[in-house]
Design a protein that fits this description.
Length: 330
């Protein structure tokens, strides 16, 4: 008996449609089916870079495609944050956005705001520490504070991030808490904590305000010391570093955060895939141990929670920058 092949294929197709089965469309493939770029707005070797790389490594293993971290520095964080926001919304360029996105537009540096992105996950929050060169004559935060008060305005220099960045605001808050002007210590802008710590070790600046984990490499190398942390409690990974409140009676704390975001307009399927993979990465032993070993804080928020967290941070940063005379617009 001869079977008409055309009729057989037609029958199969019709049967599939009738039964509600669907065949994959030509050209469609499960996301991701090629390498993904993860943009880091800050320099290699800093805390944001380290966090981005461990997240990328875990996502790569889970989703089966390379997640390549690309450092796009410059413009006090504007360059990298812009690269994330303006990328094609196809899921193949995502990035690690940081607390600076709640600050840069207040300075008039960019039109970008937290709502310029598709928030995916908040993963990390860290307070700053106060670091000095290992050869600094100031062995305690009180000795440093006394030296700062005694120095003429602008004589001492500090660094840690760009002008008006979170670590700059941390310094300003500390100075104001001591009754000093926000510019009593001159700020030297940098493209992140790593280059700032290198400058500190080389003697280019007197103080670096960045998280203690970001300073850890220079501290471990014997080239820097951390004198205090601007937080309600000590960091369990750096138990010998007191809080400002303990050492100076200054109840002042602030924090930087890092999260993953995509450009606006990505599809719901890609969004859901990335959020699920990021939650799995956050909960993994590998991520938690990596962060704990470096003293990085871990804090999770899903897309809705992350959006709300950024909105509140944007309001608070705007108020702080206005009080410090750094805000140029709302």
């Amino acid at each position: 008996m001869r079977i008409n092949r055309r009729h057989m294929l037609s029958g199969i197709s019709a049967a599939g449609l009738a039964s509600g089965l669907s065949l994959p469309a030509i050209g469609q493939a499960r996301y991701p089916n090629r390498p993904v770029t993860l943009v880091c707005p800050w320099g290699a070797g800093g805390g944001t870079d380290a966090t981005a790389r461990i997240v990328a490594a875990i996502l790569e293993k889970d989703l089966g495609q390379p997640f390549n971290v690309v450092n796009r520095t410059g413009g006090s964080g504007v360059v990298g944050h812009s690269a994330i926001a303006t990328a094609a919304p196809d899921g193949y360029t995502i990035g690690m956005i940081t607390v600076e996105i709640t600050m840069m537009h207040h300075q008039g540096l960019t039109e970008l705001k937290p709502d310029s992105y598709t928030p995916l996950a908040l993963m990390n929050v860290d307070p700053p520490g106060v670091q000095v060169n290992a050869n600094s004559p100031h062995k305690t935060i009180k000795e440093l504070a006394d030296a700062v008060k005694a120095a003429p305005p602008g004589r001492m220099k500090a660094s840690g991030t760009g002008q008006g960045g979170i670590w700059h605001l941390a310094l300003i808050g500390w100075l104001q808490a001591m009754g000093l002007r926000p510019d009593h210590v001159a700020w030297v802008p940098s493209n992140g904590a790593a280059p700032a710590m290198q400058d500190l070790a080389a003697g280019g600046v007197d103080i670096v305000t960045c998280s203690v984990p970001e300073a850890k490499a220079m501290i471990d190398a014997g080239r820097a010391r951390s004198l205090a942390v601007m937080a309600p409690q000590r960091n369990p990974q750096f138990r010998d570093v007191p809080t400002l409140n303990e050492a100076l009676g200054i109840n002042y704390s602030v924090g930087a955060w890092r999260g993953i975001a995509a450009p606006k307009g990505i599809s719901a399927d890609i969004n859901n895939t990335l959020v699920a993979a990021l939650k799995k990465a956050y909960d993994s032993k590998e991520f938690q141990e990596f962060m704990a070993n470096r003293g990085f804080g871990t804090t999770w928020a899903d897309p809705a929670g992350f959006a709300a967290y950024m909105a509140e941070g944007d309001r608070a940063m705007g108020a702080a920058m206005t009080a410090a005379g750094l805000a140029k617009r709302a």
